[in-house]
């Protein structure tokens, strides 16, 4: 019995410290905090943005506000609005910036692409007028959720999106300013076999739409013909 007490008192400080540390917010890696701040400073806050945003097809209305406004290098980025980190590693795994009033050009060399562990990324309902969808989005190999809808992206949807084989949700739509190249639709479904939801509303699709979709697909929105 004395030996058991001795062992307990030896490991008690360690157990106490472990319990204390597990209750603390995990620290965001410095390089990821810097990447997020660089991303923030690439955009201005649109003063004319609507107070609410939402899509008639989703039947949802969300209050619009500048989520990045209080991001500050003196604070833990895991506590920043819209940022979620892995509980064990502190790595940024989710970025939700929907309806954040961001305005500016989304560059292909954006620091956002340094967040290689992202699993969910939502940039919907911002103003990236004139910006192309970078092929680098296809490098987020862990993504299960990607939403680029209603943010004024333009041009061709890159075929590299088909590299995101873990995707469950893909939303890329926006006022007939986007297009999907020949054979790209078939390529999407060939590789994105885990899709539950696909929204390509208002995307110009020039390729043939296959008759067999993903067996997991429950929601499909395509342009009106």
How would you portray this structure in words?
This protein is an alpha/beta fold. The chain has one domain: Alpha-Beta Horseshoe (Leucine-rich repeat, LRR (right-handed beta-alpha superhelix)), CATH 3.80.10.10. It has 3 helices and 15 strands. It has helices at 2-22, 30-41, 184-191, and strands at 44-45, 52-53, 62-63, 83-85, 92-96, 102-103, 120-122, 131-132, 145-147, 153-156, 169-171, 178-180, 197-199, 203-205, 219-221. It has a 7-stranded mixed beta sheet with strand order 4-5-7-9-11-13-15, with no helix packed on it. Strands 8-10-12-14 form a 4-stranded parallel beta sheet, with no helix packed on it. A hairpin with a 6-residue loop joins strand 4 (83-85) and strand 5 (92-96). The longest helix is centred in the first third of the chain and has 21 residues, at 2-22. Keywords: Cell membrane, Glycoprotein, Leucine-rich repeat, Membrane, Repeat, Signal, Transmembrane, Transmembrane helix. One of its GO terms (cellular component) is plasma membrane. Belongs to the RLP family. One of its GO terms (biological process) is defense response to fungus. This is Leucine-rich repeat-containing N-terminal plant-type domain-containing protein.
């Amino acid at each position: 019995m004395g030996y058991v007490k001795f062992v307990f008192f030896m490991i008690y400080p360690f157990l106490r410290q472990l319990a204390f540390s597990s209750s603390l917010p995990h620290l965001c890696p410095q390089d990821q905090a810097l990447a997020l701040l660089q991303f923030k400073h690439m955009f201005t806050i649109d003063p004319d943005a609507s107070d609410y945003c939402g899509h008639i097809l989703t039947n949802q209305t969300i209050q619009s506000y500048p989520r990045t406004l209080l991001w500050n290098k003196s604070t833990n980025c895991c506590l920043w609005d819209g940022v979620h980190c892995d509980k064990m590693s502190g790595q940024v795994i989710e970025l939700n910036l929907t309806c954040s009033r961001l305005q500016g050009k989304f560059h292909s060399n954006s620091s956002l692409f340094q967040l290689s562990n992202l699993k969910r990324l939502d940039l919907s309902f911002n103003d990236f007028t004139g910006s192309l969808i970078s092929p680098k989005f296809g490098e987020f190999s862990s993504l299960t959720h990607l939403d680029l809808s209603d943010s004024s992206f333009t041009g061709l949807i890159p075929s590299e999106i088909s590299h995101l084989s873990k995707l469950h949700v893909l939303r890329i739509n926006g006022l007939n300013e986007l297009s999907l190249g020949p054979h790209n639709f078939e390529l999407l479904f060939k590789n994105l076999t885990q899709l539950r939801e696909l929204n390509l509303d208002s995307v110009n699709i020039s390729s043939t739409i296959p008759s067999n979709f993903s067996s997991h697909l429950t929601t499909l929105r395509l342009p009106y013909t």
